[in-house]
Automatic annotation (TrEMBL):
Residues 27-75 form the Helix-turn-helix domain. InterPro entries: HTH_17. It holds the Pfam family HTH_17. This is Helix-turn-helix domain-containing protein. It comes from Streptomyces prasinosporus.
C-alpha cells in the first residue's frame, strides 16, 4: 500500500497533472512538493528570494506561477523571478 501512495503522490505533481488541474497559480506548499522539497524549505527559499520559479506576493499571500513551475520541472533550470540564468546574454 505504501508504494501505491508514493505512486499517486508522484502522479499528482507531474507536469501533465499540474497542467490539467492547476489554475494560473499554485500554493508554495504544492509547488515545493512538485519540486521535491518540504513546505518549510519552500517558504525559506521564498523568503530568501531563491525559490526556483516565479513567485507572486499578493498582500500576505504568496503564490507560485504555474507556467513558471512547469518550465522549471520540464527544463530542470531555475527561473529566479523570471530570469533565465542559462539564457542571459551580455548587452
Amino acid at each position: 500500500m505504501h508504494g501505491q501512495t508514493n505512486e499517486v503522490q508522484g502522479t499528482r505533481y507531474s507536469p501533465t497533472h499540474i497542467r490539467a488541474t492547476w489554475d494560473g497559480t499554485g500554493s508554495v506548499e504544492d509547488a515545493s512538493r512538485a519540486l521535491g522539497f518540504s513546505r518549510a524549505k519552500g517558504y525559506d527559499l521564498v523568503r530568501r528570494g531563491e525559490f526556483p520559479c516565479r513567485v507572486l506576493r499578493i498582500g500576505r499571500t504568496t503564490r507560485v506561477v504555474t507556467a513558471s513551475l512547469l518550465r522549471v520541472l520540464e527544463s530542470g533550470e531555475p527561473e529566479y523571478n523570471g530570469a533565465h540564468t542559462s539564457r542571459c546574454t551580455p548587452s
